[in-house]
Amino acid sequence: CVYFPLYLFFFLLLKPETAAVLKRTVEALMERGAIVRNLENLGERSLPYKISKHKERHRRGGYFLIDLEGPPSIVSTMMDHLGRDVDVIRRAFIKHPVSKTEECSGIIPVDYEDKLIAKKK
């Protein structure tokens, strides 16, 4: 069984092409071996500062968050791929902090006969 790390992928988009960009981005993630768990729209907001990207200045953008599971190699390829996309203003991958969970093997039966013998000695 192969387990991939969990990532949160955050990016800012321009408003007019939102649906097309989301579709392109999710398809690109899946082509590179990612499993998309959740897509969350955080809404359109004014940016904290003016951002210049692809020879344009932007003041507003749509914030999106994708919860995904994928190989570590996906980070650099997607950052490069979306860096060339004119509809993406900013992008960032954040590794999901996951606590390791151990499987419970159930109740281990106690051998009472061994306990009695150990007490008699």
UniProtKB/TrEMBL annotation:
Gene3D superfamilies: 3.30.70.60. Keywords: Signal. One of its GO terms (molecular function) is structural constituent of ribosome. CDD domains: bS6_mito. InterPro entries: Ribosomal_bS6, Ribosomal_bS6_sf, Transl_elong_EF1B/ribsomal_bS6. One of its GO terms (biological process) is translation. The keyword Kinase does not apply. One of its GO terms (cellular component) is mitochondrial small ribosomal subunit. The keyword Disulfide bond does not apply. Residues 1-20 form the signal peptide. Pfam families: Ribosomal_S6 (PF01250). Belongs to the bacterial ribosomal protein bS6 family. This is Small ribosomal subunit protein bS6m. It comes from Corythaixoides concolor (Grey go-away-bird). The lineage of its organism: Eukaryota, Metazoa, Chordata, Craniata, Vertebrata. The gene is Mrps6.
